[in-house]
Amino acid sequence: MTQHQRLLIIDFGSQVTQLIARRLRELNVFCEIHPYNLLTDDILRGLNPQAVILSGGPDSVTRAGSPRAPQAVFDLGVPIFGICYGQQVMMEQLGGAVEGGHHAEYGRAFIAPAPGHKGDGIFAGLFDAGREEVWMSHGDRVTALAPGFEVIGVSPNAPFAMIADEARRFYGVQFHPEVHHTPRGRIMLENFVRLAGFTGDWTMAGYRDEAIRKIREQVGDKKVICGLSGGVDSSVAAVLIHEAIGDQLTCVFVDHGLLRLNEAEEVVTMFRDHYNIPLIHADESELFLGALEGVSDPEVKRKTIGRLFIDVFQRYASAIEGAEFLAQGTLYPDVIESVSFSGGPSVTIKSHHNVGGLPEKMGLKLVEPLRELFKDEVRALGRELGLPDKFIGRHPFPGPGLAIRCPGEITREKLDILRKADAVFIDQIRRHGLYDEIWQAFVAILPVRTVGVMGDGRTYDYACALRAVTSVDGMTADYYPFTHDFLGETATRIINEVKGINRCTYDITSKPPGTIEWE
Ligand SMILES: Nc1ncnc2c1ncn2[C@@H]1O[C@H](COP(=O)(O)OP(=O)(O)OP(=O)(O)O)[C@@H](O)[C@H]1O
Ligand SMILES: O=c1[nH]c(=O)c2[nH+]cn([C@@H]3O[C@H](COP(=O)(O)O)[C@@H](O)[C@H]3O)c2[nH]1
Ligand SMILES: NC(=O)CC[C@H](N)C(=O)O
Ligand SMILES: [Mg+2]
């Protein structure tokens, strides 16, 4: 457990709950998201939050059996901020009223100050231009305030768009201050954390020292093996753990036969050139490719790979005397997505191999020093630890590797073709100086053959899809707007240079509704 001042976000399943956390992290405030239905009084006491935010959510508080906050939250004596569903549920639980069936508001709206109110507390500094632009997304609305509350701001379809009980320091808004489209939402969050007494003690330098202390405390004099992929997360995890426990650490790089062209050699060389950390290069391609033969379902692929990873780690650990711990570069979004496995309000989209794919019983105990961080924070920590830019700037690469870029059945032939096409695409991106502008880029080989004509002959080969996205944390993403010239040149190069591909498409789906990977 961290020593930081902490803020608790109670999640009612909003699509943008993550953004509340991000905005707070930007203010150097540490926060944790907990699903409303998994929050016991014990957990609440253990967390000892200094303030609470109630998120939005898809349900309606007017529906019998809809989500509620644990009543104890309102007796903690700390400031509370309810957003949308969070505001509605707070009114419902504290003696106000909520109704459905009025005009819904989706998208942009303007809030005017309620008569006699300029706004104070968390609304201080607003309304200097007369009204505030906000982003709305609601069907229900508050129709009567709970005792102690007063109205601060109104919108055309929400008479209680901003409310406050200054005595208890309880606040509510009908709109979403955490989204980009509420331009001055940050002011409200900033006011809220300030009046709750947060000093902004969440910094990377502080995090590093604390993480090192905790790793030492957890591991003692035992040995640790760390799954190292060459990706940002596991490289940062390995260097951090090495700072903490030195030669008690051994890294294991698993070549599952699903890596990119020359990746194994590159990762091993890059790591050995920069760090004096023992590294085992485990060639397990026969094991993984054998187990995946004939498998085409994405979730079965993921679970198979997750299980084999652990088998391999356990095998290597048992060869090292005193190895009791497995370290992974698991991040906060992995953990949040995995919550759905234990019954949280969100839906499982994919089982990430390092969380959802873990077996129930495992001999090794986990060391996951990055569990509380978002990707961009991991990069900041990497810089803090002095990792070279070529580690920090690498595009993410998923643990299951090319398996999830080869929709349908995986064959060695398809993997070879895919590796070559992917290498050409990345080479193109580098040559045009675009690598650092793009968050992630890759090729997927499609499970269809199409007819082409090359050199006056007929071809019947695979089609492929190029994918390149911009993103901050992988949670949402947009396709990268390449020029047509770039796309044309790249398609020509792939089809000319890669035998087995005769058609090339560009995937322009954003996330959501798509996901970044194809499976
Ligand atoms: N080939 C591999 N060998 C050993 N461990 C791996 C391998 N691939 C993934 N892992 C483990 O699974 C964890 C999660 O993988 P993930 O891809 O999310 O992180 P990463 O590879 O470290 O970073 P990035 O997201 O930048 O690719 C890694 O941090 C690492 O511990
Ligand atoms: O280590 C990983 N194990 C996995 O099982 C996994 N699945 C997806 N990803 C990566 O996560 C980010 C979001 O991907 P999706 O939009 O496809 O869910 C993207 O960066 C993906 O590459 C994974 N990483
Ligand atoms: N975005 C939200 O939290 C919506 C709350 C509730 N479902 C409504 O429609 O009013
Ligand atoms: Mg990776």
Concise structural overview:
It contains 14 helices and 20 strands. By secondary structure, the chain is an alpha/beta fold.
How are the secondary structure elements laid out?
Elements: E1 6-11, H1 17-26, E2 30-35, H2 41-47, E3 51-54, E4 80-83, H3 85-94, E5 97-99, E6 105-113, E7 132-138, E8 141-144, E9 150-155, E10 158-165, E11 170-173, H4 185-195, H5 204-219, E12 223-227, H6 232-245, E13 249-255, H7 263-274, E14 279-283, H8 285-292, H9 298-318, E15 323-327, H10 332-338, E16 365-367, H11 375-384, H12 389-392, H13 412-431, E17 440-454, E18 457-470, E19 478-479, H14 484-497, E20 501-506
Parallel strand pairs: 1-2, 1-3, 3-4, 4-11, 12-13, 12-15, 13-14, 15-16, 18-20
Antiparallel strand pairs: 5-8, 6-7, 6-9, 9-10, 10-11, 17-18, 18-19
Helix pairs in contact: 5-6, 5-11, 6-11, 8-9, 13-14
Adenosine-5'-triphosphate binds at residues 227-229, 231-234, 252-254, 328-329, 354, 396-399.
Task: Summarize the structure in words.
Helix 6 links the parallel strand 12 and strand 13 (249-255). The chain has helices spanning 17-26, 41-47, 85-94, 185-195, 204-219, 232-245, 263-274, 285-292, 298-318, 332-338, 375-384, 389-392, 412-431, 484-497, and strands spanning 6-11, 30-35, 51-54, 80-83, 97-99, 105-113, 132-138, 141-144, 150-155, 158-165, 170-173, 223-227, 249-255, 279-283, 323-327, 365-367, 440-454, 457-470, 478-479, 501-506. The longest helix has 21 residues, at 298-318. It is an alpha/beta fold and 519 residues long. Helix 5 (204-219) crosses helix 6 (232-245), helix 8 (285-292) packs antiparallel against helix 9 and helix 13 (412-431) runs antiparallel to helix 14. The two termini are 35 Å apart. Bound molecules: adenosine-5'-triphosphate, xanthosine-5'-monophosphate, glutamine and magnesium ion. The site of adenosine-5'-triphosphate has 17 residues, from helix 6 and strand 13. Magnesium ion binds next to loops.
